[in-house]
Amino acid sequence: MNPLLSRLQPYPFERLRQLHADVTPNPAYPPISLGIGEPRHATPQLVKAALTDSLSGLASYPGTLGTPQLRQAMSDWLARRYGLKVDPATQILPVNGSREALFSLAQTVLDASQPGATVVCPNPFYQIYEGAALLAGAETWFAPSDPARNFAVDWAGVPEAVWAKTQLVFVCSPGNPTGAVMSLAEWELLFKLSDRYGFVIASDECYSEIYFREEAPLGGLQAAAQLGRHDFKNLISLTSLSKRSNVPGLRSGFVAGDAAIIKSFLLYRTYHGSAMSPIVQAASIAAWRDEQHVAENRELYREKFARVTPLLAPVMDVALPDAGFYLWAGIPEIFKGSDTAFSRELLALYNVVVLPGSYLARDAQGHNPGAGRIRMALVAETAECVEAAERIVQFIQSKVH
């Protein structure tokens, strides 16, 4: 067996299952789960129609590069969304969801033969970043985050000795679980560091289309273009239809950016067996070419957050995020910082599942930045999310009083 597998930690949801294994939920309440970030809004009819209308594609082997029509649809979306000019022939690749691409990109760009090869990750973070780094034979280093800035990453806080060994940096903007969006100034600093030390930046942007401000979140490629980096040197952006179009089971997204990296990534994927099904390609074209369903989806989330956040704010440290569908909330002092105890008691007394924040971070620089917080995924219908929030308020008030 691959000895690197022993370096992997249990996935957060497996840890959550173990945490709740001996908990008996209160049967007086119907179960509500805010634990897993799985979109539950309806899949657009246009996507379903494109799937069923293209079943003849099952008779053909797909190419890893995808059809020109698919890559053009992706390029057109980048132009509409970010005002970018991206070559569909050399700067875009379809992928089977952003998770698969995040993992395989690391296997493509990392050279574990170099002493101390390092991957820098945000903290808290999406655990695929860590797994991808470890299974590529690299070390991980968790960049500090600033609670005063919604846990935005403090790139300047990474020591020079770490940057000197860094080959890959994972960025998540909008962030999971915090919803923080990187500013142009933060991107400029990261680009300068990349130029100085030569590392690749993988920008995970799968939550980019769920936002609550007037201005849409800044993307990595967009930031590069605004700073005159039109070749997207050492930058790969990853995006997905899962959250944007409510099709997590479709497993469809794309990567875009530095043509030299895309060329190597295509070579890796050709051997890796990562070609997208022809019927998924047809459905993806339909999804990327339509914005109406995306705007409608965004409004559903806006309504939920507008109703749920004010309910929780008086009893928890919680605020409307910049983007994404998570609330990243600090628990009251009466729980003594134990997010795991909060999660267990909430399930036992009110039959609501939330994910402990400490499961989404690692102990680094002397502390776990997720400790004392919980992540709530507002993916269910509005009424269910509101009921969950009301139960959480009752739970906290019962402890305080």
CATH class of the largest domain: Alpha Beta
CATH architectural name of the largest domain: 3-Layer(aba) Sandwich
| Percentage of β-strand residues | 5-15%
Q: How confident is the prediction overall: mean pLDDT? A: 96
Helix content: 25-40%
> What structural category arises from helix and sheet content?
alpha/beta
Work out the number of β strands: 14
- Tell me the span between the first and last alpha carbons: 54 Å
- Domains counted in the coordinates: how many? 2
Task: State the low-pLDDT regions, or none.
Answer: none
| CATH fold-level topology of the largest domain | Aspartate Aminotransferase, domain 2
Largest sheet: 7 strands, mixed
Short descriptors:
single chain; Aspartate Aminotransferase, domain 1; Aspartate Aminotransferase, domain 2; 7-stranded mixed β-sheet; 3-stranded antiparallel β-sheet; PyrdxlP-dep_Trfase_small
Set down the secondary structure blueprint.
Layout: H1 12-19, E1 32-33, H2 45-52, H3 68-82, E2 92-95, H4 98-109, E3 118-121, H5 128-135, E4 139-142, E5 145-146, E6 152-153, H6 160-163, E7 166-172, H7 184-197, E8 200-204, H8 220-226, E9 235-240, H9 241-244, E10 253-257, H10 259-272, H11 278-288, H12 292-312, E11 326-330, H13 339-350, E12 352-353, E13 355-356, E14 373-377, H14 382-400
Parallel strand pairs: 1-12, 3-4, 3-7, 7-8, 8-9
Antiparallel strand pairs: 2-10, 5-6, 9-10, 11-14, 13-14
Helix pairs in contact: 2-11, 3-11, 4-5, 4-10, 12-14
Pfam families: Aminotran_1_2 (PF00155)
Enzyme class: transferase
Keywords: Aminotransferase, Transferase
